[in-house]
Amino acid sequence: LNTSITMTNLVLFGKPGAGKGTQAAFLKDKYNLVHISTGDLFRFNIKNETKLGKLAQSYMDKGDLVPDEVTIQMLQQEIENNPKAEGFIFDGFPRTIAQAEALDDFLTSKGMKIHGTLALEADDEVLIQRLLERGKVSGRTDDQDESKIRNRFVEYNEKTAPLIEFYKKQNKYHGIDGIGTIEEITTRLSNAIDALK
Ligand code: AP5
Asked: For the whole model, what pTM was predicted?
């Protein structure tokens, strides 16, 4: 892996629908980062009917998190698959304290680290409306009814929200207002990334 001092590794954090995937698509090009979305990886495996996809599907359909063991292994493999990366943008990972600790340990073992966690912040009701809209066209089974969307927020509150303190303790947490146009939010994120350097 490229462990040079110029490497930038970012966690893009936020509740379901906060805009992680949308923003990662811009930031990966702007900063030349490899975008790793665990949600996209699971959806790819489901579409291709792999063993991993079959395992993940039952959890994702309900809006539950996929077990840590499976997710951590998949993420580590994806990092290994990109030995020439100049940096990574992690989208949808970590989502539990166990995942965050495993990520830190794994990166440390490679001479790497997380430089910052950028957290897109927005109210639940705005996010639920965004996801219900997307569910009409995206075919994502976990967007199609409000009870599944609400379960994803319950999972977030129980398992993912503790990461805010985890990253604050490491002085790596940067809250970003997630309401506005996509361009406005990209600018806010870019300013935060530039300030990390
Ligand atoms: P994942 O794919 O990560 O889904 P999510 O966190 O629920 O996030 P979304 O993709 O729904 O939202 P996003 O923040 O990326 O927003 P987006 O840009 O798409 O995970 C899905 C499932 O996989 C999980 O529930 C779990 O089962 C499993 N999983 C994944 N990772 C896991 C892990 N680490 N551990 C365990 N399980 C895991 O935008 C949302 C919508 O809003 C879009 O329609 C977009 O066009 C729109 N939008 C974006 N920005 C704006 C804006 N500024 N204004 C208005 N609309 C906007």
From this structure: 0.96
